[in-house]
Design goal:
240 residues, alpha/beta, Zincin-like, 2 domains, 8 helices
């Protein structure tokens, strides 16, 4: 059964993994046929149930699309033996680091666009007019401040189709982060909202398909933004 992919995001360092790739990885590591559904649940990040025989029903928060190999191995071990205590803490640490991706439990959407150094609303309006003819109506907001702890990667922004919201990581609201980089991240996430995730002939969704990559690379500040992103010194400062 095809996995259900309801969101898209942008991440530094770790490669983007679509729902089908995540499902395939877990099936290879567990030996089970996995019926995977991605969720935006605010309380339960992972749930597994036997469907009998060699099949498992698995629900995961969409943050696991960016899980590194160590977390995927721990996740596969948990799918094989859900009742066994997770001793290494890899999954718990991953969830804590990505806590800003968990939506508020309240029905009232918390929207914060004004930062200390960057005004998301002003930048988004400019990007929307210049590149999308004002056609993007997604809400934009700073994401939640993640829990303190050692991090090895950072998700700069995300677009969640289920609630039509672009979230920008609050670590980018610092004086050393150039405005052109924040603008590029907003463009990237708006492009997701604009193009969606069309299905390939294989049935898989093209989150970063050819049309997306062509539009992204045509962005005027693409090379400068990617160069800033790829500078290890900048990453170290963002991960502090």
């Amino acid at each position: 059964m095809q996995a259900k992919d309801r969101t898209s995001a942008f991440q530094l360092e770790l490669p983007w993994m679509n729902a089908d790739a995540l499902q395939c990885s877990l099936e290879q590591q567990t030996g089970f046929a996995v019926d995977l559904t991605l969720t935006d649940n605010s309380s339960t990040m992972m749930y597994v149930r036997s469907l009998g025989g060699n099949r498992r029903m698995l629900r995961l928060h969409y943050m696991f699309l960016t899980a590194p190999p160590t977390v995927l191995r721990a996740l596969a071990e948990w799918v094989r033996s859900p009742r066994r205590k997770r001793s290494d803490g890899a999954i718990e640490q991953f969830v804590a680091v990505n806590g800003h991706m968990i939506r508020s439990k309240t029905r009232t959407r918390q929207v914060q666009t004004t930062g200390k150094h960057h005004d998301l609303r002003a930048i988004a309006d400019e990007v929307n007019r210049e590149f999308f003819d004002g056609g993007i109506d997604a809400t934009i907001t700073w994401g939640r401040q993640p829990a303190r702890g050692r991090r090895r990667s950072i998700r700069f922004g995300s677009y969640t189709a289920s609630d039509h919201v672009v979230r920008i990581h609050p670590a980018l609201d610092q004086d050393f982060v150039p405005g052109y980089f924040v603008r590029y991240i907003i463009f990237h996430e708006m492009l997701h909202a604009h193009l969606g995730a069309p299905k390939r002939p294989s049935g898989r969704r093209a989150v970063h398909g050819r049309a997306f990559l062509e539009r992204e690379r045509a962005y005027p500040d693409y090379a400068r933004a990617v160069a800033w992103q790829d500078n290890p010194a900048n990453l170290r400062r963002l991960l502090r």
